Structure formats: C-alpha cells, structure tokens
Amino acid sequence: MSLLELRHVSKRYGRGTSAKVALSDVCLELEAGELAALWGTRRSGRSTFLRIAAGIERPDEGAVLLEGEDIGRPGAESLCAKIAYCHALERRSQRARVFDLLAQGALSRGAEASAITRLLHGALERVGADCAGARVEELDGAQEVRVRIARALLRRPRLLVIDEPTLGLPMGEREEIIALLSSLAAEGITVLHSTDSETFFLGADRALTIDRGVLRGERRPALAEVIPLRRSA
C-alpha cells in the first residue's frame, strides 16, 4: 500500500467558459520514505497540486488517500494530522521569538507543557537551526526554511509537503536544504516539495513535472518515463 495516492484528481477555479483548469486527471503514488521533487512554471498547477496533496484544498473530482484512507471523508481529522504542510511564517509573528512561535503551535496541538523545551530544541537541532532565541524577523532565508521544517516536524508527520523551499537562496544553502529533506526521507518521512529549478531534481527518488495541470512522471519509478535519481542501496 502506498503512503500517498492521488486518484484521478482534477481541480478547477471559476465556472463556465471562464473556468481555469488547475489539475487534470492527476494520478500519483508515493511510498513511505520517498523524496519527490516537482517542477513547474508559475500557473502550471504546481501549488494547487501541493495543497491538494496536503489536504489544504479539496479536489473537484477524484480522491486523495493517505495509507489507503480518503483524507476528504468526514471524520478524517486524525488522518490529516499525519500530514504537515510547510507554509511561510505569518507576518503577525515576525516580532515573536522562534521558541515562542513553535511552542504556541505545539501547545495548541496538545503537547505537554513539561516537554515543550525538549521537543522544540530537539526539532531545531534536527534541522540545523540554532536560533531559538532569535526573533522571526531576524532570520535569514535559509534559517526561516529550517524553522518552518522544524515546526512541521513537531507534528511527527508521515508526509511533509513544502512549496519551493529553496526559492531565493544561494546555491550552497539550496544544496543544504535539499540534503536536509533527503535525510528526513531516509528516516521514513515521505517528502514532496516543489522546486524553481530542474537542478534540484538531484537526489530525488521521483522527478515530477507539471504543465497546465497535467502531471508527468507520476507512475512508480520502475515504470516512469522520468527515472528516479537516487541510486538504489
């Protein structure tokens, strides 16, 4: 059983002749511990694809399954809790300290107050972010991405979805972020991320492209036109 499966997913915005097709009959299966990279231009359907895979949006047609269960069914909140979607840090939190920002989120999800310090420092250490005392507004681009990932890891996700984690970063920092995502996949977390450069297909198990809502390379690696780039053990 695949960890994540999209079955004939379609999504449109608007109605009638003015409707825009964002996704068209998308099928995808990802296994536990896979690292999948998605490339597409602006308005290709890339961000919509990630939001639907993460359960942030619902498809108009088709279904999204996690561990064989439909995340769109009533009562699927506990299932959706296994998915972490890394979004940008909120503007209203820019003055907050990183520790306080992460603690607020962890407490809201039921973490024990007595364990917060250990959990937060563990998550920040895992992503290589030594900035618990810094304000969000003081973080550079790479630090902010690492904090976003640390916040997501506090959910103990089975699936991590992140949109353009390397956008705007210098080459060396881009490579470090991709290496971090690869290491999380090696620990068993399925990672799905988008990229603004085909260069960062490097290290991915699955190289996906999307254009006008049509996904390519969506089949299993052994059958895919786009071959997996990570060498087998």
Structure description:
The chain has 233 residues and is of the alpha/beta class. It folds into two domains: 1-82 and 157-233, Rossmann fold, CATH 3.40.50.300; 92-155. Helix content is 27%, strand content 24%. It has six helices and ten strands; from the N terminus they run βββαββαβαααβαβββ. It has a six-stranded mixed β-sheet with strand order 6-7-8-3-9-10, sandwiched between helices. Strands 2-1-4-5 form a four-stranded antiparallel β-sheet, with helices on one face. A hairpin with a 2-residue loop joins strand 9 (206-211) and strand 10 (214-216). Helix 4 packs across helix 5. Mean pLDDT is 88; it is low at 218-233.
Outline the fold blueprint:
Elements: E1 4-13, E2 20-30, E3 35-39, H1 46-53, E4 61-66, E5 69-70, H2 77-80, E6 83-86, H3 98-108, H4 116-127, H5 141-153, E7 159-162, H6 171-186, E8 190-195, E9 206-211, E10 214-216
Parallel strand pairs: 3-8, 3-9, 6-7, 7-8
Antiparallel strand pairs: 1-2, 1-4, 4-5, 9-10
Helix pairs in contact: 3-4, 4-5
